[in-house]
Design the sequence.
């Protein structure tokens, strides 16, 4: 049951678009930086396979310039 | 999903988010996640939010701590604080995570037969009081000493001063703020006759240019830097970084100008030379509001024990000052500063342009300098010559490193020479202290004794037989710990350490006292912009951990001074603050009443008729101005500030054939000072688990050193082995290496030199000579 965190960098002028796109995924939590074009992103999925599918979907978002993995945890629910 | 904040999965998600934010903070200077905390808190969380100041750095951000079932579980920026306007940096945001650390000091420990034995606090305080009393009766009152902190609260500093100077009658009290901003104090006193910046953070909203002198604000003062970046993006304000190393601040600046260590003295004079040569002097301001002086030169560097120095100021005139500056033409200075003539002229033109507003910021690069007082004077010279001072967006501003270096160390006066108002050398100041403290005036000695470095030399020599340190970690933070650690280990000195966590300093203690963390007690801090901030206790401290102020009072009572400390345990903070306020009554330093501080997110002094004074010495804003002019530098008897003639002098130790590199030391964004708190915050520790030594890539290449390779750094004092870092966090100039000092397992201060500014007695951690070799 992986929890992963990323830094997501939008294409120029597409920060709001990227935020909306990521928030459309139930498994994503997004916190945008106030003063930079960077988003902190946490994904919470039930297993590795779902995580991989989600990552592929995120990487397919048009407004995304770069997705960089920061940390990964694999843990049971509570 | 379960939404309890304390459930494990929610915690892990929060940690993951924190990791991402921390990574971002190391990659993007000044980055802020304003709503980060709210995003992480479930809507149904029933948190009670309590206001207070941040525990780290001197910026003094307002925080709101979320309390759930008696535990601190969340922190967010206080939107009502004008300092940070709801923003926080990575350290501020994570601060409460350290207090539940497994190795927290929760009970007193007394060393018996070489082992620490858990001891009831009352018994430990008996031991401390008896030992202090016995030492005084056997060796005299100057055989006992106290070393406190810019992290001590205002009441803690006040009680320490009253206890040592008013009750015992010794000036053997100094603090770790000596290591970080003593040069700023002596700079202010010599130029203006009164301490602390004339401006405030609101200057950021008005300035056209920010010139940072040896100051990596993106990592050390990130919230202020983010405010500067905001002005850069909204108003095209410019940031010029003037430093000896390329940092995250340099990368985010409009221009980065590098100089050879120590030559900032010469460049500052060259800027003044250019201002005068190009007729950019604000003549009416200088004529009305400035005098010129010179002092002694070739003062030495304090390298020998019992070093003494007293400056002998001598008045000069503007013509003599101009003559002196002839040695500092940009062409001459460029030769040894390695700053191009063009860049010197560029800096001078910015300061000289009458249509631009400029704030100069500095911190340790200028203060931790063997000519730190002079460097402070020289930056003031530039602002005084151009009249760009004490106005919104125009002014010199020395930043501080600790949350109450100003409020406690400087204002309460926990230095050997200081009293809560004024200095021990001044009979009137001693009389005021004696009256408020209700002690005979003769009890307060008129002579200062040991400043920080000399205090630990005295421990090593065996002159000090008892020392009590609080909220500080000198065996990591002092320069030349290779001498002072063995000194503290000697049997000749009884060591008491009061702290929240075990440290290398508590490792040598005879008694360890468990201290409360700041939100576990009532308190007050004072930040860099003269803002006093109050908070109420938010959570209970674990075990027998107790506020330092109350432990001082308990020891004082046991030593027979109970009548001087008639405070109640429940209300001692309020009672002490009300007593302390008497020292600063009046328009020049009036402090806000506690009722006001309880409501507001901090109040700037002087607080006069219900208002903060944001710009001192300017008659438009400062009711203390009384000379009928636009400006009144009332700290000086004639109301005039001093433009000082201060030359360039070499550093005490320079690279040579045997030790061919400069060593510069400093901090990183993830850790606060010696890391005793931030290294116990898992996400910060994971982000920066150990210290390192930075090389210029050309030096690394010529030495055949690669990233991560273990390198031994050796000076004439000692050595330290660390992994190499090339083209990572920072980039030192060729011939220089940089090491952060937060890591107690890699003690770079075993290597540094204990030379200090002869006027401020602040050590220089930025310059000594080392050799490097593969370990």
Sequence:
């Amino acid at each position: 049951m992986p929890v992963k965190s990323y830094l997501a960098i939008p294409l120029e002028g597409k920060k709001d678009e990227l935020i909306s796109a990521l928030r459309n995924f139930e498994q994503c939590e997004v916190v945008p930086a106030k003063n930079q074009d960077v988003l902190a992103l946490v994904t919470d999925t039930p297993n590795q396979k779902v995580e991989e599918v989600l990552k592929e979907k995120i990487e397919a978002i048009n407004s995304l310039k770069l997705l960089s993995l920061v940390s990964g945890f694999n843990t049971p629910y509570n | 999903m379960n939404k309890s904040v304390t459930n494990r999965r929610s915690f892990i998600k929060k940690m993951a988010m924190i990791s991402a934010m921390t990574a971002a903070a190391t990659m993007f200077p000044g980055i802020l996640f304003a709503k980060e905390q709210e995003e992480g808190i479930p809507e149904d969380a029933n948190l009670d939010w309590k206001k207070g100041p941040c525990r780290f750095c001197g910026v003094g951000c307002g925080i709101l701590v979320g309390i759930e079932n008696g535990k601190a579980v969340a922190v967010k920026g206080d939107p009502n604080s004008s300092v940070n306007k709801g923003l926080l940096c990575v350290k501020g945001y994570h601060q409460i995570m350290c207090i539940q650390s497994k190795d927290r000091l929760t009970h007193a420990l007394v060393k018996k037969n070489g082992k620490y034995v858990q001891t009831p606090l009352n018994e430990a305080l008996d031991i401390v009081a008896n030992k202090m009393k016995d030492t005084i009766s056997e060796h005299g009152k100057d055989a006992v000493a106290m070393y406190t902190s810019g992290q001590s609260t205002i009441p803690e500093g006040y009680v320490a001063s009253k206890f040592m100077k008013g009750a015992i009658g010794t000036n053997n009290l100094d603090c770790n703020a000596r290591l970080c901003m003593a040069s700023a104090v002596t700079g202010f006193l010599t130029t203006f006759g009164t301490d602390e910046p004339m401006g405030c953070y609101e200057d950021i909203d008005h300035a056209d240019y920010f010139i940072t002198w040896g100051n990596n604000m993106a990592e050390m003062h990130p919230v202020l830097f983010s405010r500067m970046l905001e002005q850069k993006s909204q108003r095209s304000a410019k940031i010029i970084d003037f430093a000896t190393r390329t940092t995250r601040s340099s990368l985010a600046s409009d221009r980065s100008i590098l100089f050879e260590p120590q030559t900032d003295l010469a460049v500052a004079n060259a800027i003044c030379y250019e201002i005068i040569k190009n007729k950019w002097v604000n003549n009416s301001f200088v004529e009305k509001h400035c005098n010129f002086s010179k002092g002694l030169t070739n003062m030495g560097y304090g390298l020998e024990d019992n070093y003494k120095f007293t400056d002998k100021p001598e008045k000069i005139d503007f013509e003599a000052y101009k003559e002196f500056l002839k040695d500092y033409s940009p062409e001459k200075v460029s030769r040894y500063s390695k700053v191009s003539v063009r860049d010197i002229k560029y800096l001078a033109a910015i300061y000289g342009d009458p249509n631009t507003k400029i704030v100069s910021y500095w911190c340790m690069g200028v203060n931790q300098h063997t000519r730190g007082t002079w460097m402070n004077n020289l930056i003031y010279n530039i602002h005084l010559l151009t009249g760009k001072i004490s106005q919104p967006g125009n002014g010199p501003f020395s930043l501080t490193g600790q949350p109450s270096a100003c409020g406690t160390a400087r204002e309460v006066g926990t230095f050997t020479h200081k009293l809560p108002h004024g200095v021990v050398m001044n009979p009137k100041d001693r009389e005021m202290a004696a009256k408020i403290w209700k002690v005979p005036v003769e009890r307060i000695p008129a002579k200062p004794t040991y400043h920080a470095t000399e205090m630990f030399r005295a421990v090593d020599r065996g002159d000090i037989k008892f020392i009590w340190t609080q909220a500080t970690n000198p065996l990591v933070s002092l320069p030349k710990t290779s001498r002072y650690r063995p000194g503290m280990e000697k049997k000749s000195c009884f060591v008491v350490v009061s702290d929240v966590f075990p440290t290398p300093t508590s490792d040598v203690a005879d008694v360890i006292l468990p201290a409360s963390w700041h939100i576990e007690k009532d308190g007050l801090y004072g930040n860099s912009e003269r803002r006093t901030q109050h908070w109420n206790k938010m959570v209970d401290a674990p075990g027998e951990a107790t506020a330092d102020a109350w432990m001082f009072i308990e020891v004082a009572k046991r030593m027979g001074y109970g009548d001087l400390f008639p405070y109640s345990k429940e209300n001692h903070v309020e009672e002490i603050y009300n007593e302390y306020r008497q020292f600063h009554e009046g328009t020049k330093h009036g402090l806000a009443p506690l009722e006001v501080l309880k409501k507001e997110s901090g109040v700037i002094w002087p607080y006069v008729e219900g208002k903060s004074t944001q710009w001192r010495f300017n008659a438009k804003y400062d009711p203390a101005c009384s000379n009928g002019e636009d400006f009144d530098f009332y700290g000086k008897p004639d109301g005039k500030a001093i433009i000082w003639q201060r030359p360039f002098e070499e550093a005490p130790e320079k690279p040579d054939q045997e030790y061919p590199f400069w060593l510069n030391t400093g901090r990183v964004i993830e850790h606060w000072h010696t890391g005793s708190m931030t290294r116990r915050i898992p996400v910060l520790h994971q982000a920066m688990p150990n210290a390192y030594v930075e090389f210029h890539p050309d030096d690394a290449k010529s030495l055949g050193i690669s990233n991560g390779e273990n390198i031994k750094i050796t000076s004439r004092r000692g050595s330290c082995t660390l992994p190499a870092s090339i083209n990572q966090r920072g980039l030192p100039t060729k011939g220089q290496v940089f090491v952060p000092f937060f890591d107690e397992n890699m003690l770079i201060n075993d290597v540094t030199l204990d030379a200090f500014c002869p006027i401020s007695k602040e050590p220089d951690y930025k310059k000594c000579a080392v050799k490097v070799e593969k370990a």
